[in-house]
Amino acid sequence: MKQITGFSQLSTQLLQSVANQFHDGDLHELASSINQFFQQVAADLQLLDDDSGTALLTVIPDKLAIDPVAVKIKMNCTNINNARQPAELGPA
Q1: What is the pLDDT of residue 32?
Q2: Which of residues 44 and 92 earns the better pLDDT score?
Q3: Burial code of 14-53, b = ≥16 C-beta within 10 A, e = fewer?
C-alpha cells in the first residue's frame, strides 16, 4: 500500500480516511476492493511465453557483459580522496 500511495509510512489514520471516503469507513471492504483491482489487472495481463524468457536469459550480448577483473582494476584505480568537499560545491 505504501508503494501505491507514495507515502513512506502509512498510518492507520490515512487508511481509515481512504476507507471513509470510498467504503463508509470499512477497512475490510477497502482491502477487498484493492485486492479485486489487482486481480483484474493481473487477469488482463498477457501470459509470458516460456520459450521467450529463457532465450533472453541465456544469450547476453558481449557489450553487456562485464569482466570482473576489469571492474576490480577500474575500482582500484579510482581515487576517492579527490572528491569535492561541500564548501567547494558552491551555492545550491
Answers
A1: 93
A2: 44
A3: eeeebbeeeeeeeeeebeeeeeeeeeeeeeeeeeeeeeee
Q: What is the pLDDT of residue 29?
A: 94
Whose CA is closest to 33, among 24, 44, 22, 25?
22
Q: How far apart are CA 62 and CA 52, in angstroms?
A: 20
Cα 54 from Cα 64, distance rounded (Å) = 17
SS3 call for 60: coil
pTM of the shown model? 0.43
Backbone phi and psi for residue 24, each to the nearest 5 degrees, phi listed first: 50, 35
Is residue 22 helix, strand or coil?
Answer: helix
As a whole number of angstroms, the distance between CA 13 and CA 9 comes to 11
Q: How confident is the model at residue 77 (pLDDT cuts 50, 70, 90)?
A: confident
